[in-house]
Amino acid sequence: MLQPKKQKFRREFRNRSGLKGKSMRGNKVSFGTYGLKAQAAGEITSRQIEAARRAMTRFIKRGGRIWINIFPHMSVTKKASEVPMGSGKGVPDHFVAQVRPGRVLFEMEGVTPEIAKEAMKLAAYKLPVQCKFIDINVK
Questions:
Q1: pLDDT tens column, 15-27
Q2: Helices (H), the chain
């Protein structure tokens, strides 16, 4: 699963205000021919990214090429069960990528449009945000 090699600080604020508005960066397909674009804001965990990647890779039977355009930098903490209030913030539990609407999450090339659309649909089922398939050949 994806996670940063090194961090400046172990614990971060959630910064949910960072999910407001549309994505200004990463909103165009830049590497492949097909893309999966987020339609809503949300946090995607490293497990969900890996599950989507596996679903696409298995469907295209290791043909073509896939790019992942998001990375889970932000750590999310969790306190142990039955711990009383107070006593500080919990320990880092998992990592998430914050996604705004319009962000291209995955890109693909080297397969037919039908296979790409179905593979991206399977990947979208694994993600907590609504997504849309985009093809740069169709205007």
A1: 888 889 999 999 9
A2: 46-59, 113-125
